[in-house]
Design a protein that fits this description.
With 77 residues, the protein is mainly α. The chain is built from three helices and no strands.
């Protein structure tokens, strides 16, 4: 059985333009990375889980990724 999230992501990737595809792929990886980092902060450092913290961290990470050369993130804004 294929997870619904995998099907959703595959359909989302196929429905965007080729120009936006790299950005969407980067955004998916960035989202997973940001959630993982916040989860680790909560588990290992006792931080409180907060959506606002994850969103702020994602914004900061997206800027850093763009400055480091991640292609396509700026086309999604």
């Amino acid at each position: 059985m294929v997870p619904a999230s995998k099907i959703f992501l595959e359909q989302a990737i196929l429905t965007v333009s080729e120009d936006a595809r790299k950005g969407l792929n980067s955004l998916i990886i960035l989202g997973a990375w940001t959630i993982w980092k916040h989860r680790n902060d909560c588990v290992f450092n006792g931080a409180s889980p907060r959506l606002s913290t994850v969103l702020n961290l994602a914004r900061e990470e997206a800027l850093l990724w763009s400055l480091a050369g991640a292609k396509g993130l700026s086309s999604l804004s």
